[in-house]
Please model this.
Amino acid sequence: MSYKNFLRKIRTTIPKARLLDSPAERLAHGVDASFYRLIPKLVVKAETEDQIMTLINTASEEAVPLTFRTAGTSLSGQAVSDSVLVKLGHDWKGFKLEDDAQRISLQPGVIGSWANRLLKPHGRKIGPDPASIDSAMIGGIVANNASGMCCGTAQNSYKTLAAMRLVLADGTMLNSSDPESCETFRQSHQQLLSSLTEIRNEILADSTLHAMIERKYKIKNTCGYGLNSFTDFEDPLDILLHLMVGSEGTLGFISEVTYHTVEDPPHVSCALVFFDSIETACLATAALKHTPVSAVELMDDRALRLMQGRPGIPKTVTAGSMALLVDVRAASLSELSDKCQQVQQCLTEYQATADFTASPTDYAALWKIRKGLFPIVGAEREQGTTVIIEDICFTLDELASGTQALQKLLDKFNYTESVIFGHALEGNLHFVFTQDFNDVEEVKRYDCFMRELSTLMCSQFSGSLKAEHGTGRNMAPFVEVEWGQKAYSLMKRVKELFDPKNILNPDVIISVKPELHISDLKQTPAADPIVDKCIECGFCESVCPSRDLTLSPRQRIAVWREIQQLEKAGLPTKELRKEYQYLALDTCAGDGMCASQCPVDIDTGKLVKQLRGVSNGSFSEGVADRIGDHFSILEGFVQSGLKLAGLSRSFLGTHKFNDYPEAGPSTLKLKKNNHSEDVVYFSSCIHRLMGPDGGNAQFDVVSSLLDKAGYNIILPEKLSSQCCGLPFESKGFKDTGKKKMLQLKQELLRVSDGGRIPIICDNSPCSYLMIDDIQEPSLQIFDAPTFFSTRLDKLNIQLKDEPILIYSVCSQSKAGETECLIDIAKACSNEV
Model:
């Protein structure tokens, strides 16, 4: 193995900016959602298929292992590496709708829910629906054969695969949707295809093995390679393509997948149904299998206790009880009602009542409880421990006894805080528990538990050790336990056929290391109370503005944890802190959007602002305070600078200032009106400073709308000195920010007559901060779109056919006010 030669060769074709090899970058980009930590020697942000082929060919020449990664929401350790990690993200977001959205082609960097947004206008969606679909990308969804709540075994990637574009370990590209590419491949890879046919024939000739494979894939199973490819398909090319599904990057690189899409009924309803025992809940689940349900999600009493008091969950949960979240979907409201009645009728036989709700808010709240169970358990763990999620499957007739046996096994190993939940309709259970990996005896406890679990699932029950999370590193030592020597030997042959040099994600799925599952375990030391609950699941990443520039929220947390751990051990962190300043602190938007996707509401922006405040120092604090005290002078300086830039453009022809905005007017002018109602208008500093051609677009528009709606405008006094404090607060100058907010609060109380007169602000981030921080019940503070959305009848809007595109900024999304913006747009246009 020659890593130096590998690096020297790829540097000739891959831009330096795409090769990340600093300590902080390697640590940060090596983080995934599993409980393993491997730090790559190099992270490559691959941009094109040609770069992938270069990487694979060079890796083959130099015997350097590669691991491909998209979102890194993988739970089983299949997306970490101590060699070369190849990351795919924003460069791989291509898509194409085909056959009236009956098919969709997607590159690996497309987030699953984004694909569904593309399909929603057509009443379609992709089949897989993992709980992480808002973060998980297509590359990982296909590579793990992820399923989820509704898709079962009928609509996963394996079953809905239409075509695939891939690169094999020998550098060959195959596009299965191109007949010429297929024919060329059949000629060049005749030996590989013949070998796959040989394996198929061996399986068909062995009735016992054949029957076992068919039986094991009647339920969810992602343990090992998909041997059902050999029994489901005759053409070796079809076998090859379906082996790629669930292969976790160990057989090749998937650069595009084409799905057969599935129906996405527009009307949905769900109910949380409670039972007094596991047996009754599981019997009801088996009966519900024959009703028109879309999903049935099981939650045990321990899971329910974690959620006590949340909407739909009792304040007291009885020991031994169980709940089923039952979901129904339909093409029409009448059909939805009929289906709900059928489900209710079925449940009456089990003395259970289903109070179905079709309210979007209530529906989302119930599903949020179910989808957030894994991170929420992680958030409750003791400091320094790691949260683990396992993923097994029973046949439906064994679900009740299997669940009870699993509970006893967890209790036997003293995992008393564990919770069990999952996709009951498929017999698929997830169980979550916390584990201390800092102690040798604790690691031994986990090892013994895993070995007994494998015996339980494969000897006592006819189950799967991995249902939908993939084999990864934590189940690789047990693949042979589940499948037996003969089937496992076929899997090893598959790996050798596709990747004879073992350069693609080695040790994942196929491994000769019996203790791989207890090697390279992740430590999660305490770093700061703001973020200590983080389990590095990655749900936050899809909404982070700087995730493709530098680091995402979970990466900022991971590196900060490392810095804190090193410093506690008395080790140097100067270089790591230096990198952290730019990668984590300087480039974080601080908008807190990460909290909106985090199941336990972690706002990494708060940590960043806190650390900025520490790094600012007393001198900077003093400067910030003086600027705050003389804010009107600052405004004058900024306006003068913008005017000078405008003059340079106009008279000197200088293009250097083309990206600078125009300066707004020195004073804001109001029309005198005599309306019956008053409103206080706080124009934010950013909109006071800027405006086209010496005017003020935002101020003029808002003023005009208020006039049209019948309001007299009152401006705060000395407006140029007023600020909500956001520019200071976001840079870590907390005290100055609070000081400016207090000044503004006092002025707003005065000018609004103690809160009698409503107040609007024309900049959503400022509005959000004011509402959140002022906390003065008497003040009526509105963001402008929210204010106008409830007064549309006063504006006499003329509906037009011109389409309107809505972009809700972070603060509007966090405040839950996006719908206000949409309501205004719908009043203006037929197409929003």
Summary: The first strand starts at residue 19 and ends at 20. DSSP finds 32 helices and 21 strands in the chain.
